[in-house]
Amino acid sequence: MFCSEKIDVFLKDKYNHIECKKNQYLSEYTTMKVGGKVEFMLYPTSTAEMIDLLRACEQESIPYFILGKGSNIIVNDEGVELLFINIQKLDHIYLDDNDNTKIIVEAGVSLLELSTFALTHSLTGLEFACGIPGTVGGAVFMNAGAYDGEIKDVLYSSLVFDKKQGEITLNNQEHQFSYRNSAIAQNKSVVLSSVFQLQKVTDDMIKNKMDDYQEKRESKQPLEFPSAGSTFKRPEGHFAGKLIMDAGLQGMKMGGVSISIKHAGFIVNDNNAKAQDVLDLITHIQQVVWEKFEVRLEPEVKFLEKNGEFKIFQ
Ligand SMILES: Cc1cc2nc3c(=O)[nH]c(=O)nc-3n(C[C@H](O)[C@H](O)[C@H](O)COP(=O)(O)OP(=O)(O)OC[C@H]3O[C@@H](n4cnc5c(N)ncnc54)[C@H](O)[C@@H]3O)c2cc1C
């Protein structure tokens, strides 16, 4: 049986109570606005429903992909034969009853909503995250960070679905956070919810910091165009954007994408791009930067191939 038929039977048999959108283009679900079709996109609405679904997927070998806000992925133009699980309806957020410096939040909540909730409760620590356009799940997966902070600095624990052990709670250490990486990404686990440990201060201080970071972003980043943020990780001892500029590549166009003239670390979709254009430009930048400076640029964005695996860049 083809994979899509298998998913169809699986959903009809057991999961017709969960909202499912069919034949969705990933260009509408990713911030780069490229990507082909996915046949099934499911919207679980609670952690319990999510656990039940993931367990069944594992038992019946249904391949799945967890989609947050699509702000760090590029999906190939032909699409993918996987069950897409969109976490946007895992959207609960509240203060811990026993400790009002802890926020408990489901994985589909956006970082903007989380940092605004922290501001409302005069809790500091998440200001760095207010301009990162992803979900809590995607941010924990990536150990997202900006300016003076990273997820690892404020995360207390997560409820996670692990492929072997089922649902487990991981403390901060057990996430094995490193630069834009975590055990969640390594083990292909799924974040269901997380607890953030913050500190009480005056709201003014938090608001000023958030405004300051937002102004910096708006002045330095090409937010007026679709993109997936910084294309490359920061190579040790260098800045990716500076290497790209020094290699004379800034402004270069390839198909429908170009290297932003505002920030050379960003590839932007400024002319109805295809995923292949992004891939070609990434490969070209890597080659030129290697030839000129012998520095290997490792993509921070993840490129999802037709077979459902992330592309391994050389
Ligand atoms: C304009 C712009 C600015 C950005 N600035 C920053 C920045 O300053 N710092 C930074 O770190 N990043 C930045 N990013 C990148 C991106 O926003 C972050 O990496 C973000 O954390 C990705 O979250 P997401 O929900 O969009 O994840 P997605 O792109 O949807 O998914 C990314 C990966 O996470 C996995 N994933 C998503 N949810 C879960 C879950 N619940 N459990 C397990 N895996 C999951 C997906 O399967 C996928 O492999 C920026 C992006 C843009 C477009």
The secondary-structure element order is HEEHEEEEEHEHEEHEEHEEHEHEEEHE
The value of Rg in angstroms is: 20 Å
Based on DSSP secondary structure assignment, what is the total number of beta strands? 19
Q: What kind of sheet is the major sheet?
A: 5 strands, antiparallel
Kindly report the CATH topology of the largest domain. Answer: Uridine Diphospho-n-acetylenolpyruvylglucosamine Reductase, domain 3
- What small molecules are bound in this structure? flavin-adenine dinucleotide
CATH class of the largest domain: Alpha Beta
Please bin the fraction of helical residues: 25-40%
Give the class from helix and strand content and strand pairing. alpha+beta
What is the number of independent domains? 3
Helix tally equals 9
Report on this structure.
The chain is of the alpha+beta class. The chain has 3 domains: 3-86, Uridine Diphospho-n-acetylenolpyruvylglucosamine Reductase, domain 2; 93-207, Uridine Diphospho-n-acetylenolpyruvylglucosamine Reductase, domain 3 (2-Layer Sandwich); 222-304, Alpha-Beta Complex (Uridine Diphospho-n-acetylenolpyruvylglucosamine Reductase, domain 1), CATH 3.90.78. Helix content is 30%, strand content 27%. It has 9 helices and 19 strands. The strands form 6 sheets. A 5-stranded antiparallel sheet has the order 6-7-13-11-12. Strands 1-2-5-3 form a 4-stranded mixed sheet, with helices on one face. A hairpin with a 3-residue loop joins β11 and β12 (166-171). The longest helix is centred in the C-terminal third of the chain and has 19 residues, at 275-293. It is globular, with a radius of gyration of 20 Å. The mean pLDDT is 96. The structure holds flavin-adenine dinucleotide. Flavin-adenine dinucleotide binds next to β3, α4, β9, β13 and β15. Flavin-adenine dinucleotide (FAD) binds at residues 31, 65-73, 87, 107, 132-135, 137-139, 141-142, 144-146, 184, 190-191, 221, 223, 227-229, 302.
